[in-house]
Amino acid sequence: MAENEWRHENCLNIPDVYCTCPFSDAPAVTCDGAWNCEDIMMISTDILNYYDTNYDGTISLEDEIDPAHLEEINNNCDFDNNGVTDACEVH
Fold this sequence. Notes:
Layout: H1 2-10, H2 37-51, E1 58-59, H3 67-77, E2 85-86, H4 87-90
Antiparallel strand pairs: 1-2
């Protein structure tokens, strides 16, 4: 998986990401608007770039983000529980 290759190079203390597909035994199904792994990585990177207003590589209160919104992002993405979401956690 491309995500794990990126993590191995840039995020040594972050575990691999494992994605399972409930349709892995079925023929490939495509539909309009479906996201693939590349789309998800691009969306995640866009989110980090949008909220990281001070360009330090993290989403934190220093980015003038609403505390409630930061809490929501951190609940989903702050895997090391340090109060910020960084590029390693987004990818």
